[in-house]
From TrEMBL:
Residues 140-243 form the Mandelate racemase/muconate lactonizing enzyme C-terminal domain. One of its GO terms (biological process) is carbohydrate catabolic process. Coiled coil: none annotated. This is Muconate cycloisomerase II (ClcB). Its cofactor is Mg(2+). InterPro entries: Enolase-like_C_sf, Enolase-like_N, Enolase_C-like, Mandelate_racemase_C, Mandelate_racemase_N_dom, RHMD-like. The keyword Transport does not apply. Keywords: Magnesium, Metal-binding. SUPFAM superfamilies: Enolase C-terminal domain-like (SSF51604), Enolase N-terminal domain-like (SSF54826).
Length: 375
C-alpha cells in the first residue's frame, strides 16, 4: 500500500515548445499543413522531486496553469487523493485539460517511491503490444510502403484514417494494404467525433462504411459519428459486426458512465492527459471491464503524454487492454515525440518495453528544451 506522506507542492511550471518538422505535415483531422509541432511540458516540484507530463496545447495552456491553477493548488499536499476532482473537471470544462497536471503529480510520486509508474499502479506487464497509428491521408502506394516498415518492426495491427472526400478512395487504400499484408490486421479511424472540418458522416454513411469493413475483418471502426450522437453509436454497434470505439477526448467519470451505459462503444479510448488523469482512466477502465468492453487508451500525444498512457496500459490486464496506440506516421515521428527527452522507448517485436526507471521513465533534457522553447 502506498504510504501517506506530507509533501507540499512547491512550484508549477509549463514549458511551451515548438519543434520544426522535417517537412510540413497535415494530419487527417487538421484543416491545414503545419511546419512545426507545438506542445507543452508540465513540471511540478515538491519535496525535492520533480514530475513531468506533456500535452498538445500551447501558450494559453501555460498561462492558465501558471496563474489560475498554480494559485489554487500551491501549498496543498501533493497526493493524488488531495487533488480536488472538481478542480480537474472544471479545468477540463474550460478546455484546458488538467489530466496532464495529474499525470505530472503521478510521475513525481512514483519517483519519490523509487518505482516505475506502472508498478506503483500495481501493474506487472513489462511490455505492451503496440498498434501503429497512421495520421496522414497518403496514396495507396505510400501507405503500403509505410506498413511494410511497420511489419519489419514486428507490428501486426495498423490503424488507417478514413477522411478523404470519397469513401471509395479510403477503401482503395485499405484494399491495397489488405492485399499486400495478409498477416496485418487493420483498424479504421474516421475522426468524426471532434472534427470541425468536413467530410461529415451521417449514420447511414457510417453504416455503409461499417458494412464494407466487415468484408475485410477490420478490427474496429473508431469515431464514426459526432461525439454526442450516443443513440447513433448504439444503433451502429447493434447492426454491424465491426467493433466501435471512441472517447479519446472525453473527460469526467459521469460522461464516460453515460457513454458506456448508453451502449456507445465496444472499445473505450480515454487518454490520460486529455481526460482528468490516470486515476480517472483507471476508473473508466474498471467501468468498461464491468460491461465486458475493452479499454485501449488514445495515445497520439507528445512523448511524456504517450508514456503516461503506456504506463496506464501496463497497469491493466492484457485481456482488458491489449494494445497501446503508437504514432508512427511519418516514420520519423519518434524524433518529435522524444526529441527533448533524455531517452526513448524501445519497440521490440511489436511491443513497447516499459522503462524501469522511477516515474514515467524519462524526463526533459534542459539543454534540448532551450532550443525549442517559445514560452
Amino acid at each position: 500500500m502506498l504510504r501517506k506522506r506530507s509533501m507540499k507542492l512547491g512550484d508549477l511550471k509549463v514549458h511551451t515548445l515548438a519543434i520544426p518538422l522535417r517537412e510540413p505535415i497535415q494530419f487527417s483531422w487538421e484543416p491545414f499543413p503545419h511546419p512545426v509541432y507545438v506542445f507543452s511540458i508540465v513540471e511540478v516540484e515538491a519535496g525535492g522531486f520533480k514530475g513531468y507530463s506533456a500535452i498538445e496545447f500551447g501558450a494559453a495552456y501555460k498561462h492558465f496553469l501558471e496563474t489560475t491553477v498554480k494559485l489554487t493548488i500551491q501549498g496543498l499536499d501533493i497526493e493524488i487523493e488531495d487533488v480536488d476532482a472538481r478542480l480537474l473537471e472544471v479545468g477540463s470544462w474550460a478546455i484546458q485539460r488538467l489530466g496532464a497536471l495529474e499525470v505530472a503529480i503521478w510521475d513525481l510520486i512514483a519517483k519519490r517511491e523509487g518505482l516505475p509508474l506502472y508498478r506503483l499502479l500495481g501493474g506487472g506487464r513489462r511490455k505492451v503490444k503496440v498498434y501503429a497509428s497512421t495520421g496522414r491521408l497518403l496514396s495507396a502506394e505510400e501507405t503500403v510502403k509505410m506498413v511494410e516498415k511497420y511489419a519489419e518492426l514486428g507490428i501486426d495491427v495498423v490503424k488507417l484514417r478514413f477522411r478523404r472526400e470519397r469513401i471509395n478512395e479510403d477503401l482503395e487504400v485499405l484494399k491495397a494494404v489488405a492485399r499486400e499484408f495478409s498477416d496485418v490486421k487493420i483498424s479504421v479511424d474516421a475522426n468524426q467525433a471532434w472534427s470541425y472540418t468536413p467530410p461529415y458522416w451521417s449514420r447511414k454513411k457510417a453504416m455503409k462504411v461499417a458494412k464494407e469493413l466487415e468484408n475485410f475483418e477490420v478490427l474496429w471502426l473508431e469515431e464514426p459519428l459526432w461525439k454526442d450522437d450516443v443513440e447513433g453509436y448504439r444503433w451502429l454497434r447493434e447492426n454491424t459486426s465491426i467493433e466501435i470505439s471512441g472517447g479519446e477526448l472525453e473527460h469526467g467519470i459521469q460522461r464516460f458512465r453515460m457513454l458506456i451505459e448508453g451502449g456507445a462503444f465496444d472499445i473505450v479510448q480515454a487518454d490520460a492527459v486529455y481526460s482528468n488523469g490516470i486515476q480517472e482512466c483507471r476508473k473508466v477502465a474498471a467501468l468498461a471491464e464491468a460491461f465486458n468492453l475493452k479499454f485501449m487508451p488514445h495515445a497520439w500525444d507528445p512523448g511524456l503524454g504517450w508514456l503516461a498512457n503506456l504506463h496506464l496500459a501496463a497497469s491493466l490486464p492484457e485481456k482488458l487492454c491489449p494494445y497501446i496506440e503508437t504514432p508512427l506516421d511519418p516514420l520519423w515521428w519518434n524524433e518529435v515525440m522524444f526529441g527533448v527527452l533524455n531517452g526513448e522507448v524501445e519497440l521490440e517485436k511489436g511491443y513497447a518495453k516499459l522503462p524501469e526507471q522511477p516515474g514515467l521513465g524519462f524526463e526533459p533534457d534542459e539543454e534540448k528544451m532551450k532550443k525549442f522553447r517559445i514560452a
